[in-house]
Amino acid sequence: MPRKSTHIDMTAMCDVAFLLLTFFMLATSFKPPEPVVVRTPGSTSTVAIPDGYMLITLDKAGRVFFSVDDVIAKKAIIEQINEEKGLGLNATEINNFVIGGPIGVKFSQMKSLLALSPSQQSDFAKTAPGIPTDTTGNYETNELAFWIATSRYHMPKARFAIKADGEAKYPEINRVIATLGKLKLFKFNFITDPKGIPAGTALFEEHYGNKAK
Question: What is the pTM of this model?
Answer without folding.
Answer: 0.73
